Amino acid sequence: MSEETRRLERTPILPLVVIGVLASAIGIAIGLVIDWFPTDASIQAKPIDNLYDLMIILSVPVFVVVTIIVLFSAWKFRMRPGEEQLDGPPIHGNTKLEVVWTAIPALVLVVLCSYTYVVLTDIEEAQANEMRINVTGQQFAWSYEYPQAGGKPVRSTTLYLPKDRPVRFYVKALDVLHDFWVPAFRMKVDAVPGITTRYRVTPTRLGTYPVVCAELCGLGHAVMRSTAKVVTPADFDSWLAEQQAPAGGADTGAGASDGDKGTKAPEIDAKTIFAEGNGTSIACGACHTLADAGTSSQTGPELDKVLKGKDADFIKTSITDPEAEIAEGFQGGIMPKNYADTLSPEELDALVKYLGEVAAK
Ligand code: CUA
Questions:
Q1: pTM here?
Q2: Could you read off the pLDDT of 212-267 as tens digits, one per residue?
Q3: Hey, CA dihedral for 303, 307, 312, 314, is it positive or negative?
Q4: What dihedral do alpha carbons 136, 142, 143, 147 form, nearest 10°?
């Protein structure tokens, strides 16, 4: 009988089992007590959280068993003085042991996969009265489009959602991979150029939640954020009506073009281009705060501050050649450099004029 076999046989197995059970119990308790997630704000959140708890309950013992066996073996079969030249015993396998250590993990995996499949299928079931929202990701902003039957879609850089109304997101990317994620809803999906991905969410809690990009997409990835606002159905309807009402646009047009009265050219609504984009350009408001346009993102410099006292040339250059001068505390490479292409010359001029007027206020 080799020295190793004798050592092993002298080892009582019971203390190891007791240690394993205790360590697993403590590990599971810690895993369940830790508050891993933000507020749950959708009907999808609870099932996902329960699934996560089950993963913890089943994976902690696996971690504990592997760790105990590794640590125990390193200690028990360590090399002692005088054993430097000794080789280990020739072991040819143990069929019983191999059957056990294949069957148990297989069983654990089958249970986890089956339960996961059931949960994910269940929470993605089609709902009556679903609202469709198109989500577009591009470096480095999210924008949302609410298709309206028989009218032009409402666009926004803030994700407004009515409480308790099932929503289906249709997600696309214009440039590289992004990932549309609202942690409070727990659901997330990659935005992939060339295809449309989708998922369903039913918001259940009023409030404001961060929307984040969860796929490394370039220099501005960390600041590719937006806001989801879950509001009452009545507030949502009035927000939607406000966006659709031509009055809102005319209002802006009049404010931004007092000096243009009497000209024949079609009015360009610079405030809307700022807040929502023109359909091609990324909305300025997706990244910049400007009180007049009602935008509040902190990704780029706050225009209410940095534009004070600046002239039209500075504003135009800042839009078409953002690297020319980087505002203090910000880095280059984040603002799109293609505004000279995505905006028409008239739109660009209108935007410069509008920003100049706001800055002069
Ligand atoms: Cu977009 Cu990361």
A1: 0.70
A2: 999 999 988 998 999 999 999 999 999 999 888 764 444 443 344 444 444 445 67
A3: negative
A4: 50
Ligand 1 nearest-atom number relative to CA 216: 2
Calpha distance 257→350 (Å, rounded): 9
Any ligand 1 atom below 6 A from CB of 221 = yes
Burial category of 175 from C-beta neighbours within 10 Å (exposed 0-12, middle 13-18, buried 19 and up):
middle
Q: Please report, to the nearest 10 degrees, the dihedral formed by the alpha carbons of residues 49, 224, 347, 159 taken in order.
A: 20
For residue range 10-19, list pLDDT tens digits in order: 667 788 888 8
Write down the architecture of domain 268-359 according to CATH. Orthogonal Bundle (1.10)
The whole-angstrom separation of Cα 320 and Cα 304 is 19
Q: Of all protein residues, whose CA lies closest to atom 1 belonging to ligand 1? A: 178
Is domain 131-244 classified as CATH 3.30.499.10?
no
Phi and psi torsions of 314, nearest 5°? -60, -45
